[in-house]
TrEMBL record:
Keywords: Hydrolase, Protease, Serine protease. The keyword Plastid does not apply. It comes from Hymenobacter humi. Belongs to the peptidase S8 family. Residues 304-366, 452-528 form the SLH domain. This is S8 family serine peptidase.
Amino acid sequence: MVVVFAAGNEGPGADTHNPYAIAPWTISVGAGDRNGLLADFSSRGVRGEQGTFSVDGETWTFKNEPVIVAPGVDVVSTRAVAPVSSLGAQMDAELLTPAEVPFYTHMSGTSMATPHLAGVVALLLEAKPSLNPAQVKELLVKTATNMPGHESWEVGAGYVNAYAAVDYAFRSSNFGSTVNSTRRFNSSVNSQSATTPFTINFNPATTATNQMTFPVSAGTNSLEVKISSPGVLGETGNLTNLVLIDPAGVRYTSGTPVTFTLSTDRSVAVASPVAGTWTVAVEGVRGVAAPETVTGNITLLTPSGTTNLADIVGHPAEAAIKMAVTNRLVDGLATGFQPNANLTRIQLADYLMMGQGIRQFLPVNGARTFTDVSSVSDILLTESVAARGAAQRDGFHVNNGVMLPTAIGTFSPGATVSRAALAYSLVQSLGFQEQALSRNGKSVTVSVNGQTVALDDADKIPAGLEGYVSVALELNLINAYYTISQGPYDLQPTIRATFKPSQAVTRADFAVIVTRTFQQYNAQTQPVAQAARTTQPRPC
């Protein structure tokens, strides 16, 4: 029997993982949304917490982390009780027709993600009935899609890829070499942890004493705050909620668990927090929460040296390279990072799989798309980035691949990557094909201090990529180049802009550009300015 277990809805802090889901013979499932992002509420494990034990002479290895992530946000299903239900009422009104509302509703939670995963397991067993539970788990891990900016203690192997998993079960295809959780990286940014205890005298009748501030330095890798709210005499629990507020006013909340009498811890974790003064606050349900002394800890993970990155010291892109390596958006080479070397196409394919949510894929009929790649790992890379529906953001698997061939049947793995080609790849990875194609054939412009400036070299952008360059510029993924001239009698200077579409991208260039893309990946679903992110109420 394959046992599938919900990871829990107590995120986003560490050490919130359902303790019963840690057993190594179970498959613990976290929750993600339809854009491939991890749900804030999805429970996390603990970095590096693992061990072994023996049962009946067999040795088992456990890790305190989810195994896989599956869709668990705004999932539509039939109502158990019609027509009265408050579950997902707002989403119901927005996305369901009045005729559907009495019979269907929305709901979020790892309990929604778990049946998705159970369905995938059923498909695997149909494809290969002889699979045992350990083999099913291994197939799911090896075929997962990496989730940018998250480590295995948060997401396990990544987002489930049902197509690749069934393909692997049916054909024993060569998947797995691109999964970050099992990959050995050439370079890394090391870190050290510093923990500061604090106390808040919580009083639901006032807000003055219910919060405190603390500083976060630039370059901090992650921030986690955890409190204990055991209630009266440490026995009753308390209807409290932990809130972090960043310098811009964006709120990150823990939510209040339904089992508050038993689940007395609250925690919130933030990756790559902005520098400045943060606020930690304890909020309670008005008229119900009780006064108490709340104790907690603030843990900051900061850089502490690097491995195999000595050649970036003093480079203008040093900070961006460190950020990109930290978030596994790029990796060094065996001989260092080589920031001034040109980025090759096979390296770009590798980094797209690593940090842009690109699904693993191999042609079912075995017919290879490219004849100029031969190694097993390169075949997986090139087929995956060229496949229709490659990007996790493409929920319907209808968009083109995230990299284009250099010629029919040719990938040219050692060729350099141009700025125009990189714009295409990153915009496709974000799922903006429709928006980009709608702008093809139109003028490509940039906005400078409220002034719209047309690119002087727009005619040099390869046909079919104008829209991609336009979207990349609008999202600030990649920069234009500017010159300013002013005649002796001109009242205002003239600004001119170029893109240099055929210019080769260096490895340092890519690190800078991909960190900007990373921010868009985690913050946007459309190529327009977004409102400040706020977390939603705790789901079931």
